[in-house]
Specification:
The chain is α+β, with helices and mostly antiparallel strands. It has 19 helices and 30 strands. Among the domains are: 188 residues, Aldehyde Oxidoreductase, domain 3, CATH 3.90.1170.50; 194 residues, Aldehyde oxidase/xanthine dehydrogenase, molybdopterin binding domain (Aldehyde Oxidoreductase, domain 4, 2-Layer Sandwich); 148 residues, Aldehyde oxidase/xanthine dehydrogenase, molybdopterin binding domain (Aldehyde Oxidoreductase, domain 4), CATH 3.30.365. A hairpin with a 5-residue loop joins β21 and β22. The chain is globular, with a radius of gyration of 28 Å. 55% of the residues are buried.
């Protein structure tokens, strides 16, 4: 393992920039992980949700008489029982194109009056055992008057579509607009070339490894709720749940252990938690609920689902004049907390990518349908924006006759233009986009592609190459805690409000602390899943964790050093100005007298009395204020083979060059890219949620919903090209969602490249064998 060289010539084997193995892995790989379903409490009861089998209907009644008398049943709760609690709602401050404020419909914890999607929770059954609760749930009889259902956002917004909520005509909850329509229209009018494509961003089931689970309890003495639950940040969820349950935040505690994946889905409060907490308080016993995979397919918030018309205007030299997106965004049956963001603001911020595009216009209708609610999924609008632009660039290259690589290079924002004020309102601080593109093309071996294509043809396969040149705008780091606590056993605990659900935060955060304070990595612990221990916390999402927590740890370390110099001066009997700190040790300048930071913390703990001005602890509870968004970028190049006889697509070669700024742990970052690329391949080729006309999900299990397997993902080349960010202390840019942003366009552009000789220039995701085969047959008929 290479070492980090320090200014004095020494090295830090586990510092920033080193490929340190994950601290989490030995725990998880030996079966010692502690997920939400692993947590149990004495005397706990079990909850099972009764869900609507109808996509849309009037709820006329709920007959629980038979279920109540069944063995072990202690309570069955419906909307009437939990009506005193708060309603789930989207609180983002969006406005319609006419300037009026968006008012989103509220969601009751349990369906009241109507059911609006298959899986809508209607009742909560609590019993002594899970089997008893399940049996009783099956005995609950719903009296529902079915209504016509609509599952497609464009169709739901059309005249005559079923009305899902009274007061929202045409089911449109937000008519969003960004940009100057007159200027954009004029730019298109004078354009030499206009690329125009219908682009479908297919709906995705998140399919996290760990289904949602929770354990609710009530402390009658303290009048306090505790919720053990898998989530993406306990501090924010505590505020949401306390508000819903009508208690002060200090009377609500959220605990989270290991989390088996989330990708945005577990970030917010869910309705199931409310009746569980209600039952725990009413019955005086903890209540546990664990969803099964079938329930997850129905009730976990889905991702994506946008129907878009994209347009790109170019002048005669191929310079971009304007880009315009006109979209329908499917919200599902209820508005999730951040539901409108993906198809509105994040389209705006990300469609420009790394190109000089003077004008952007985004028109999006956010529409309620009779489907599972939609919320954030890895990238949450960022991969989409890049996908739309990259597909439009390929179409523009075809129309103009300009080479697609040259067209990208010609429109790149030059490094000399930084900081660059984009039409989206973002200010890019750094980037070397043309250099990244050139390095990716070189890594893809373009000269050898001709021979590889010929070899594929000899086997009867069509081979194509695709580029995904991306830039994504991360979420701005929110206020984040950087707590450092020196323990009695000689370990040091980092306390943070971000939360690891697979990323490896413990390792990366320990590397930052090791470099800043010199604490040995094997003595560093991480506390991240207890809301009672936090004074701030932005949670994990939007590729911001290392920028937020890393900066918080860095600043907290500086405070430890400042406090330590005062304390060391007392212990070493020297003036504070004579104390130096390096590699975990305070020393008197010019001497060999010193004390280690951990030893100093122990000495302060043991001291009976300290003079005024000398701190009695090195512990710190620091809050990093915030920083602007960062702009990770890169270029991915994919090669695919298409079997024209079956329509099957195989990704056979993949390389990427990525600018993530300063990389704390290359091993973890490369893994994040691999995961994002795999999910992008899944959406591009395999995954899609399908509904019947009456709103029944047709892809509700792994028998019908295809995820990519190991054999479907090739080796992924990863090359960093680090241009440090100038907007946060570490110079990092975030990496968690970039794999999707690069892979969606790279894979789909490669498929179109393979099919282009047949006359096929557009194909929607997912490029399943059936869809590809049908496109090939259609092209053959047209050619004949």
């Amino acid at each position: 393992m290479p070492d980090t060289m320090m200014p004095d010539g020494t090295t830090l084997r586990f510092g920033i920039g080193q490929p340190v193995r994950r601290n989490e892995d030995p725990i998880l790989l030996t079966g010692k992980g502690r997920y939400s379903d692993d947590v149990s409490l004495p005397g706990q009861l079990y909850a099972v949700m009764v869900r609507s089998p109808y996509a849309h209907g009037v709820l006329r009644g709920i007959d629980v008489s038979a279920a109540k008398g069944m063995p072990g049943v202690l309570g069955i709760y419906t909307a009437e029982d939990v009506k005193q609690y708060g309603k789930l709602r989207c609180t983002l401050p969006f406005r319609h194109r006419d300037g009026t404020e968006m008012k989103a419909p509220e969601r009751h914890a349990l369906a009241e009056g109507k059911v609006r999607f298959v899986g809508d929770p209607v009742a909560c059954v609590v019993a002594e055992t899970r089997a008893q609760a399940r049996d009783a749930a099956e005995a609950v009889v719903l009296v529902v008057e079915p209504l016509p259902a609509v599952t497609d956002a464009r169709e739901a917004a059309a005249a005559g579509a079923p009305t899902i909520y009274e007061g929202w005509p045409n089911n449109v909850v937000l008519d969003f607009h960004f940009g100057d329509s007159a200027e954009v229209t004029e730019a298109f009018a004078r354009a030499k070339h206009v690329a125009k494509l219908p682009l479908r961003n297919n709906r995705i089931v998140v399919c996290a490894m760990e289904p949602r689970a929770a354990l609710a309890s009530w402390d009658a003495d303290e009048q306090k709720f505790t919720l053990n639950v898998s989530c993406q940040g306990v501090f924010g969820l505590r505020a949401q749940m306390a508000g819903l349950m009508g208690v002060p935040v200090e009377k609500f505690r959220v605990l989270t252990g290991h989390v088996g994946g989330s990708f945005g889905m577990k970030a917010s409060a869910y309705p199931e938690y409310i009746p569980m907490l209600h039952a725990a308080r009413l019955l005086g016993r903890p209540v546990k609920w664990t969803d099964d995979r079938s329930g997850s397919f129905l009730s976990d918030q889905h991702g994506r689902d946008h129907d878009v018309e994209g347009e790109l205007a170019l002048d005669g030299e191929g310079n971009f004049l304007a880009v315009r997106l006109t979209a329908f965004a499917n919200m599902g049956g209820y508005m999730a907390t951040v539901a409108p963001l993906m198809g509105t603001g994040n389209f705006v911020k990300n469609v420009q990518a790394n190109y000089r595009t003077p004008l952007i216009e985004v028109n999006t209708k956010c529409v309620i349908t009779n489907t599972t609610p939609v919320s954030a999924y890895r990238g949450a609008g960022r991969p989409e924006g890049n996908y739309f632009m990259e597909r439009l660039i390929e179409e523009a290259a075809r129309l103009s006759g300009i080479d697609a690589i040259e067209l990208r290079r010609r429109n790149h924002i030059p490094s000399a233009a930084m900081p660059y004020s984009a039409a989206s309102g973002s200010v890019y601080d750094s980037g070397e986009f043309s250099t990244v593109l050139a390095k990716a093309i070189e890594a893809s071996d373009p000269a050898g592609f001709i021979a590889r294509k010929a070899e594929s043809a000899a086997r009867g396969k069509l081979r194509g190459r695709g580029i995904g040149n991306y830039l994504e705008v991360t979420a701005p780091p929110a206020k984040e805690m950087g707590g450092i606590r020196f323990e009695k056993d000689g370990t040091v605990t980092i306390i943070t409000g971000t939360l690891d659900y697979g990323q490896g935060h413990w390792s990366a955060f320990a590397q930052v602390l090791h470099e800043k304070l010199g604490v040995p990595c094997d003595r560093i612990r991480l506390l991240q899943g207890d809301s009672d221990q936090l004074v701030a916390g932005g949670g994990t999402g939007g590729s911001k964790s290392i920028m937020a927590s890393g900066a918080a740890i860095s600043e907290a370390s500086a405070i430890v050093i400042d406090k330590g110099k005062l304390a060391a001066a007392h212990v070493l009997e020297a003036a504070p100005a004579d104390i130096e700190f390096a590699r975990g040790r305070f020393a008197i300048a010019g001497t060999d007298r010193g004390i280690g930071v951990i030893e100093l913390a122990s000495a302060l703990r043991a001291a009976d009395a300290l003079p005024e001005g000398v701190p009695d602890t090195l512990d710190v509870k620091h809050v990093f204020d915030q920083a602007p968004s960062a702009f990770p970028n890169g270029c991915h190049v994919a090669e695919v083979e298409v079997d024209p006889e079956t329509g099957a697509v195989q990704v056979v070669r993949y390389v990427s060059v990525n600018d993530f700024g300063v990389i704390v742990n290359p091993l973890l970052v490369e893994g994040q890219v691999h995961g994002g690329v795999a999910q992008g391949i899944g959406q591009a080729i395999f995954e899609s949620v399908r509904y019947s006309e009456d709103g029944q999900i047709l892809s509700g299990s792994f028998m019908d919903y295809a995820l990519p397997r190991a054999a479907d993902v090739p080796g992924i080349g990863f090359t960093p090209h680090a241009v440090p960010a100038r907007t946060n202390p570490l110079g990092a840019k975030g990496c968690g969602e970039a794999g999707c942003a690069g892979s969606l366009p790279a894979v789909m552009n490669a498929i179109i490249d393979a099919l282009r000789p047949l006359g096929i220039t557009q194909l929607d995701m997912p490029a399943t064998p059936e869809r590809v085969w049908a496109a090939i047959q259609g092209a053959k008929k047209q050619a004949a």
